[in-house]
Amino acid sequence: MELFNRTLSLATDLVMAPLQGLSPSISLLLLSAAMGILFLLAFRLTSNQEAIGRLRRRMAAHLLEFRLFQHSLGIQWSALSRMLLANLIYLRYAGRPMLLMLVPLGLVLIQLDQWYGYQPLKPDETALVSLKLSGEGDLTKVRLETGDGLELVGRPLRSPRSGEVNWSVRPRRQGTQLLTFLFEGRQVRKEIVTSDQALARVSAVTPSRDFWDVLQHPGAAPLPPDSFAERISVNYPARRIDLLGWETHWLVFLLIVSTLAALAFKRLLRVQI
After folding, report:
1. Is the distance from CB of 187 to CB of 147 less than 8 angstroms?
2. pLDDT by residue (tens digit) across 194-252?
3. How do beta strands 143-146 and 175-183 pair?
4. Whole-number Å distance between alpha carbons of 112 and 109
5. What is the DSSP string of 196-237?
6. What is the C-alpha to C-alpha distance for residues 58 and 151, in angstroms, rounded to an integer?
7. How far is CA 183 from CA 38, 95, 141, 154, 166, in A?
8. Could you give the percent of the chain with pLDDT greater than 70?
9. 104/187 Cα distance (integer angstroms)
10. Under a CB-based contact definition with an 8 Å cutoff, are residues 204 and 118 in contact?
11. Distances in whole angstroms, Cα of residue 216 to Cα of each of 112, 193, 207, 213, 220
């Protein structure tokens, strides 16, 4: 799973490289439009286009029949029932390619969340760093060491009930720096990213070795099996994307733009949806 994540992350980095000089809104606009067109082509290749075309014409005919024979309740009910049946058949034809695309789409969205879900820290911006112990232990023995470019602000906050220790960290300069966590002679590390770039990959969580945890957080290698830490996270600022003056989550932006792009290009690409 780690090799798979690294390979997919590298491929995503290559795609994102030429977009890093653009604003997040413009880069996501271009990316969303391209994804809409790509998934439109994938739908054409994996679906029965001829059967979908026939069903669409049949549904249009039943709808016309329903409107024309408003004086006859029997004909209207017959047209409506046949239209509903055609819709169910359509769902069978369209559902298969949708299901086939669901897994690759999910993997792509997980990767993009590393770029658009959070903003990297800026110099002198404070962030909360959390470590959860994998078992019972004395939380007072958990320590955090930072390099010259990072500063600890105040004292750590320990929560025995949840087994977590929280620190406030303030970076002093740009770059990727290391946080070193120490406990009973053992240590684990996590990177923290500080940048004033519009776009940068940010890994908010270092996951456990659980399959789903690793799948959802591909930006960092999972913790070792014998690690004293179950999970490490950095509370990066959430990113909001501007959509015509309305700030929204990046995923909402992507779904709207990719859908509009697919609808705009379906006739040009001769795709029945």
Report:
1. no
2. 988 778 889 999 988 888 888 888 888 888 888 889 899 999 999 999 877 788 999 99
3. antiparallel
4. 5
5. -SS------EE--S-HHHHHH-TTSPPPPTT-SEEEEEE-PP
6. 68
7. 48, 51, 6, 20, 14
8. 95
9. 36
10. yes
11. 11, 19, 9, 5, 10
Distance separating alpha carbons of residues 78 and 61, to the nearest angstrom: 12
CA terminus-to-terminus distance, the chain: 34
Radius of gyration, CA atoms only, the chain: 25
State which H helix or E strand residue 253 sits in: helix 250-265
Q: Which residues of the chain have pLDDT under 70?
A: 1, 62, 66, 70, 72-76, 79
What pLDDT is recorded for position 100? 84
Task: Choose among 166, 175, 191, 190: nearest CA to 123.
Answer: 175
